[in-house]
Design a protein that fits this description.
Chain lengths: 134, 134
DNA sequence: CTGCGTGCAAATGGTTTGCATCCAC
DNA sequence: GTGGATGCAAACCATTTGCACGCAG
């Protein structure tokens, strides 16, 4: 179904570049950071366009929008649900390489919610930030 | 330790009321909603004060600040980590009454992060929002 | 051609902050 | 009495949006 959704997508140079850049990195950049990355290739792109495209892409399930506790949203080129590590100090997000089964929610506990997916985040302090305070 | 932290806390009428109101409800109100609730009791309280207190209380671990994927943060009078259900349409958050063990992250996978806690959220569409579209 | 996508800039909206005053301890 | 807490309003900043033009299909 993901391919279904991507089918109807119009492929502008901007959108193409944003997606390519996002898939190139292993970090989880904010819209601002994506803007900076893409601007090196398309200097005339606007921040609004970056926001619009990140929105479109995440709605189509091509990329992942990470809620996060910070104010800024972060984006992940890998659209599959997978657990993350997030630093509560600097907001940095890392992929967690630990294949543990995300438990499916029994229907009798879903309280009428549908289309559920499971979001798991381990929140703590990253090595860099932990080092500064010690 | 929760009591330890709360010890040093100054107990103004505003802070007291905010905490009491937050504990009174089972919803997970936004700062705005807390403001509305508290204003009925303390009509002269300012939104800034509500934000400052929610910040203080969550930093001390007295209440829980929920990251959520939406823009607004929500708050939970129950400071213990527990899984939530979140509606991706309206942003509503419910407590999930399903005691499954939040998996502890093995140190060898923590990538240097410390003080980790696990945040589990099932994201879907709530009964109300699902009903509207069908 | 047609309409979606873009650049630009202004508008939004949640959250934070500076400052003088107030009150809990 | 004293420093943290408050009310108010302005400041911030990430994100969104209106509009006229441009380009992909």
């Amino acid at each position: 179904m993901k391919d279904e959704d991507s089918k109807g997508i119009r492929l502008s140079r901007q959108r193409e570049t944003i997606l390519a850049e996002l898939r190139k990195v292993k970090t989880h950049p904010t819209a601002d950071e994506v803007y900076d990355m893409v601007r090196k290739i398309l200097p005339r792109i606007s921040l609004g366009t970056v926001y619009r495209n990140l929105d479109t892409l995440s709605n189509r399930g091509v990329v992942l929008r990470l809620g996060g506790a910070g104010t800024q949203k972060r984006f992940d080129g890998n659209p599959a649900a997978h657990p993350h590590l997030r630093c509560s100090v600097c907001g940095r997000v890392d992929d967690l390489e630990w294949p543990f089964a995300l438990p499916d929610l029994p229907v009798e506990h879903s309280m009428g919610y549908v289309d559920l997916r499971c979001d798991v985040e381990y929140v703590g302090i990253c090595p860099t930030c932990a080092g500064k305070n010690n």
